[in-house]
Design a protein that fits this description.
Layout (H helix, E strand, L loop, with lengths): L6 H11 L1 H7 L6 H14 L2 H4 L2 H14 L8 E6 L7 E6 L1 H11 L4 E8 L3 E7 L2 E7 L9 E9 L5 E7 H9 L14 H14 L6 H6 L1
Antiparallel strand pairs: 1-2, 3-6, 4-5, 6-7
């Protein structure tokens, strides 16, 4: 007598059956078997994906494959958010590590980072005749206090420095313009990721970016 598949195993089998579609979408340097294994792990560790809207889930995993980011909650994540009516939906969300990985791999910039600033950190940003300057010394070994801002910083191959600094008031304006401010990534465990990505998005408007990186952002 055959054992009936659990909902989790059934979903994992469905995703495995999409291997060919993933292989066509993935960049050449991403191993399709590794991508499928990461998907299966995501389902095992987050069984709520089983009861989420299936169309949104499949769209999310296909977008992850097209961007070449593993949905391992480091490079990208499959975020579940509730809707006013109907089953929860799944949203593909590139994470800071994945975005920075794509930017670095593109070879268009020398360095790029995004960091949160807290009240008890030492922080200074100023502009003079030689350009933009930033100094940040995180207070890592004691209480850092409340979050007061975020910045993104990039250096180009020719040595140019670009900085974007946002206060929490700036971040709130961006958050409040989002349709999912109350039930999406902004309202959950990924809030700090959203804040850091906000700074990178602002900075990217001043930087040389390829089309595929602009799409991820």
């Amino acid at each position: 007598m055959s054992k009936e598949l659990t909902p989790v195993d059934s979903l994992k089998r469905s995703l495995t059956a999409m291997r060919g579609q993933f292989e066509m979408a993935l960049p050449k340097h991403i191993d399709v078997d590794k991508f499928v294994r990461v998907l299966q792990t995501a389902v095992s560790t987050n069984p709520e994906l089983v009861s989420a809207d299936r169309n949104s889930l499949l769209a999310a995993v296909m977008k992850a494959s097209q961007d070449g980011l593993l949905p391992d909650s480091r490079e990208s994540a499959l975020v579940i958010f509730k809707t006013k009516d109907g089953p929860p939906k799944v949203q593909y969300m590139p994470m800071i590590a994945g975005i920075l990985k794509k930017i670095r791999n593109s070879g268009e910039l020398q360095t790029i980072t995004s960091q949160l600033v807290y009240k008890n950190d030492k922080f200074r940003y100023f502009v003079d005749g030689t350009g933009e300057h930033i100094e940040h010394e995180p207070n890592l070994f004691s209480e850092r206090g409340a979050m007061i801002g975020v910045y993104a910083l990039a250096t180009t191959k020719d040595g140019g420095l670009y900085v974007e600094v946002l206060t929490m008031a700036d971040v709130e304006k961006v958050k409040n313009s989002s349709r999912s401010k109350s039930f999406g990534p902004w309202a959950g465990d990924f809030a700090s990721e959203m804040i850091r990505k906000t700074a990178i998005r602002r900075l990217s408007k001043r930087l040389p970016m390829s089309t595929d990186i602009e799409q991820v952002l």
